[in-house]
Fold:
Amino acid sequence: MKQRTQALLTLGMASAFALIAGTSGLWANEPGYGKDGYAAGGHSAMGGHGMGMMHSSAGHLIRHLLKHEKEIGLTAEQVAKLKEIQLNLDKARIRAEADIQIAERELKALIDDEKADLGAVEAKLKQSADLQVTLRMTSIKTRREVLGLLTPEQRAKERTEHEKMMQQRKADGHGSPHGSAMRGMPHKGMEATPPK
Structure:
């Protein structure tokens, strides 16, 4: 029993750390955050450099499309729809992050209470994990919805604009805006290109 208690407590702490270090960063590149997805002061708004800063995030894709709407050839209707999707995504993100933070604080309180029922600790762990999955799925579904708005020609133009931006960053000595962990990963649902 003592080993199970320790295992659950360790799992709970690992879950809390993973949330702080990663999942909440899922939306670090969203509107409302500072330059390059960082809050004022140079730290990630949610305290991490996690998977949220991935180039394939829905928010990043929407902002990229809106920034290059003329080059990509977006219609006025497409721009209006993208702005509507962006607002809905932002509202969903804010609600989901609040729910996750509450669940994690409740989990910490349970872990700190040595008399707390282990079943309650496990249930809170599962609740937090489910909320995080829901948050990630929202981003994935939104990305698919956004890509579905584009014609094949617009997708090709979007990719060209992205490549130009990446080449410019390299030329300026900035490298990838998303760190070395992103090298070799597919761009917005496209196939990964082999390294040169």
In short: Residues 8 and 14 are 10 Å apart (CA to CA). The chain has one domain: 2-31+53-175. The two ends are 54 Å apart (CA to CA).
